[in-house]
């Protein structure tokens, strides 16, 4: 699979590296430093390269959007037409101070993104776990049990592609339903962040849902 990374910071850089190491063709883009993009591609291995947002999106089977809410319009304008593309967003609609959500209850950041890229298949995923857990989960991917990772979207193909990427990283995908469920998963991401960065155990935190047998 060809994966374009729009936003090569902590989440985009780590997920892109993992996708490349899992065998996907990856193009890193949208960083303040061209040297950083080149270094990311080099460290990710032979399946990765650096490019512009338009190059990252052009031939991609999936595009990962991993930028701050305030940068959405800029990166989307540089990426170009995303119609027909699977767009996986791990971005949260945070305010400029990263202290709270600016969209919620009656909509979500993922739904607002879908309105901006009409014709794309938007899926919300990877935003309910800290970046610090990504490499440990990938390294332990052949073990059991795997941690869970929720995702949601309105398009069956987009969700299938996203679920495959989630498994490649080392998580067990949990289909939470349509894209409007991002109204709940985005606040849940803030809870996970509070536990990860405000707790005592460190930020490498994951979660797992267990379905128990019903009692008669």
| pLDDT averaged over residues | 96
Helical content band: 25-40%
Q: What is the oligomeric state here?
A: single chain
Order of helices and strands: EHEHEHEHEHEHEHEH
Strand composition percent: 15-25%
Whole-number radius of gyration? Answer: 16 Å
- The count of DSSP E runs of length 2 or more, i.e. the number of strands, is 8
Number of helices: 8
Kindly report how far apart the N and C termini lie.
46 Å
* Strand order within the widest beta sheet: 3-2-1-4-5-6-7-8
Structural class: alpha/beta
3D shape: globular
Pick out the low-confidence regions.
none
What does the largest sheet look like? 8 strands, mixed
Keywords:
216 residues; alpha/beta; eight-stranded mixed β-sheet
3D structure, described in words:
With 216 residues, the protein is an alpha/beta fold. The protein has helices at residues 10-21, 34-44, 53-58, 72-79, 109-116, 134-139, 156-169, 182-198; strands at 2-6, 25-29, 48-50, 62-65, 86-89, 121-124, 148-153, 172-175. An 8-stranded mixed beta sheet has the order 3-2-1-4-5-6-7-8, with helices on both faces. Helix 5 (109-116) links the parallel strand 5 (86-89) and strand 6 (121-124). The longest helix is centred in the last third of the chain and has 17 residues, at 182-198.
């Amino acid at each position: 699979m060809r994966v374009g990374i729009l936003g090569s910071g902590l989440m985009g850089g780590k997920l892109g590296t993992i996708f490349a190491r899992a065998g996907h063709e990856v193009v890193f883009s949208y960083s303040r430093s061209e040297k950083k993009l080149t270094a990311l591609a080099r460290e990710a291995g032979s399946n990765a390269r650096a490019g512009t947002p338009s190059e990252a999106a052009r031939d991609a089977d999936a595009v990962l959007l991993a930028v701050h809410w305030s940068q959405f319009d800029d990166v989307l304008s540089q990426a170009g037409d995303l119609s027909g593309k699977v767009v996986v967003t791990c971005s949260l609609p945070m305010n400029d101070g990263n202290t709270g959500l600016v969209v919620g209850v009656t909509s979500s950041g993922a739904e607002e993104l879908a309105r901006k890229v009409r014709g794309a298949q938007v899926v919300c995923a990877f935003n309910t776990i800290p970046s610090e857990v990504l490499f440990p989960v990938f390294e332990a991917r052949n073990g059991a049990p795997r941690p869970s990772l929720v995702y949601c979207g309105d398009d069956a193909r987009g969700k299938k592609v996203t679920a495959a990427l989630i498994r490649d990283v080392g998580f067990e995908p949990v289909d939470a339903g349509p894209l409007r469920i991002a109204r709940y998963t985005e606040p849940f991401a803030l809870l996970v962040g509070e536990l990860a960065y405000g707790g005592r155990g460190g930020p490498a935190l994951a979660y797992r849902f267990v379905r128990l047998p019903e009692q008669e």
